[in-house]
From TrEMBL:
<dbReference type="InterPro" id="IPR036188">
    <property type="entry name" value="FAD/NAD-bd_sf"/>
</dbReference>
<keyword id="KW-0503">Monooxygenase</keyword>
<comment type="pathway">
    <text>Plant hormone metabolism; auxin biosynthesis.</text>
</comment>
<dbReference type="InterPro" id="IPR050982">
    <property type="entry name" value="Auxin_biosynth/cation_transpt"/>
</dbReference>
<keyword id="KW-0521">NADP</keyword>
<dbReference type="Pfam" id="PF13738">
    <property type="entry name" value="Pyr_redox_3"/>
</dbReference>
<keyword id="KW-0274">FAD</keyword>
<keyword id="KW-0073">Auxin biosynthesis</keyword>
<protein>
    <recommendedName>
        <fullName>indole-3-pyruvate monooxygenase</fullName>
        <ecNumber>1.14.13.168</ecNumber>
    </recommendedName>
</protein>
<keyword id="KW-0560">Oxidoreductase</keyword>
<comment type="similarity">
    <text>Belongs to the FMO family.</text>
</comment>
<keyword id="KW-0285">Flavoprotein</keyword>
Amino acid sequence: MDCLREIQGKQAHDPIFIEKMNTLSSRRCICVPGPLIVGAGPSGLATAACLKEKGVPSVVLERSNCIASLWQLKTYDRLRLHLPKHFCELPLMGFPTDFPTYPTKQQFVDYLEAYATKFHIEPRFNETVSQAEFDTTLGFWRVKSLGRNGEGTEYVCRWLVVATGENAESVVPEMEGKGEFCGDIRHTSLYKSGEEFRGKRVLVVGCGNSGMEVCLDLCNHNARPSLVVRDTVRTANSSP
């Protein structure tokens, strides 16, 4: 029994269900026959493709206006995959053979676009999920979203897949004296290129992949970076 027929059956025999469904009248309600996937990044796309391969339809919601928004909108220009490409390919479709071992940011985005096209994945863009709740009376998830113009939609589905990513939101800690500092304080999600920092002194906090690569990029653009880290940096030759 599909989602719509099941809802109609409950509506005809369950007065509590009828009362709950009446609360949806103020917004558009869409019954999803398969899983609802939140996020059109690599994980969301891979989930949708694998479901489609098994004949299971799904709906993908994405709050931005493109797939892989973290890669397209919140990464620096020189970014490459930090692992060899065969570790990063999505299910059912490998990288093009002419791609380098460590594809560039644009090559990875092109690969994801081709992946979505191949599996006919068409996310609903500019839809921000504001609430997701499993309704025990209905036996379905009720997921509320807001569109770009503020219009509300409620999706009713049996299965919900959250693929919003672990780095979707930047974390900027509170720092003493931050309010008195007259310079630019920027999270790496807003950093694009060292060109705008040419000749300037820049303090980079953290020596993970992003911190080290931003430092290199600043050096390549003749900026003067310094690096501060929280703990001792260990190398292969460090003594215990």
